[in-house]
Amino acid sequence: MDKSCVRTVDVSKITEAVRQLAMNTTSNVPKGAIHGLEQAYLKEESPVGKEVIRQILENHRIAREESVPACQDTGVAMLFIEVGQDVRFVGGDLYEAINEGVRQGYIEGYLRKSIVTDPLFERVNTGDNTPAVIYVDIVPGANVKVMFAAKGGGAENMSGLIMLPPAAGVEGVKQFVIDQVRKAGPNPCPPIVVGVGIGGTFDRVALLAKRAVLRDVGTTNPHPKYARLEEELLEEINKLGIGPQGFGGRTTGLAVNIEFAPCHIASLPVACNLNCHAGPHDSIVL
Amino acid sequence: MAIIKISTPLTEEVTASLKAGDNVRISGILYTARDAAHKRLVSLISEGKQLPMDIQGQIVYYVGPAPAKPGQAIGSAGPTTSYRMDSYAPILMEHGLKGMIGKGSRSKSVRDAMVKYKAVYFAAIGGAGALLARCVKASEIVAYEELGPEAIRRLTVEDFPAVVVNDTYGNDLYEQGVREYRIETCNSG
Question: What is the CATH number of domain A154-283?
């Protein structure tokens, strides 16, 4: 390989990017979600539901203006790193650099530390919100894109996965997603964003659902059939009557986002990952 | 929308006057406790030991607040999902607890215990932590500081906004709300 094509990136730049993202993201609810909530406020028929949306919008304004987290649950720090294949990292371990950014951002940003060491036995808080959940993808080019999401536990707990037979088809997918949202009811802080993964394998479909739930509210899948399915599912979900915070109303979902991938001839994996009305995420390109 | 002002500790007269769907503003003391603290409290009760605070007539708020920035009484402090405390809640009510604040549905055994012990479950708006923190005037750690956000705190609140979800008569706002707004289709049945 021609050495002149290689771009050197010091991992301290990654630490700094992650620190900045952690400190700023949880107080700045994405514009797409704010717009979705404003539209929902106009359309909501339930007086209680309307008042809930008004208070949520006020909360998100306070968070932005005072640089405080919109929600106390500042989540699992999730990092999606896209590394250009012409990049070479220097100055240390990439994963340690990412965790150092999480550590600094959560401590300096007065964010809640919500990670325990061992899931089953000790459950001792690590005190700095590390380790982060990190996904690294290699892409063409010489840029590094750092995407950060603070994924809260309440909505995450209401997620699910099913390995459907291919014969279940579109109706099977719809039934699973709608059931998942109905069962979740008031728990994931509606109005929610519903991330749906379809295809891939058992493990991949969960990641597809995660990528979907972190896609901005107001964006649609570029594939027309999947875009139509997103619309139909949102319509069905908003007939459930759960409404803002589950107090009853027309706005249960702000968006349904679908991501899909090819899969085995025997399979139709479906995963449903939920997010609350805030769903903080942001990215930096280095 | 009528707003009912209540203050802690709650008497049975007050809890009996509240109905599912009522909008309340709570002033007084709230004790914070979530998963890990509940586990410890219930262990103390089963061992016959004294709790770190008197829960007679009190309200427990299911919250793990964010750290306070300089000048704040507390960081963002919205409710966490309540069902995780369902296995612990009835025994606390049996020992005098009169209110719980959280978000999301409760199990049948918790709802039955609320009727039996004249206790009420309130919901605060999930994800409105910045707004709710403004109602918290003071915060001090009562127990289990090592649990970090899960420590038990005594919060002094003024006009903390909440909605009655489960009253002492067995009503449930979540069920009522869905019944009122659900549109029947083949997919939602």
Answer: 3.30.1330
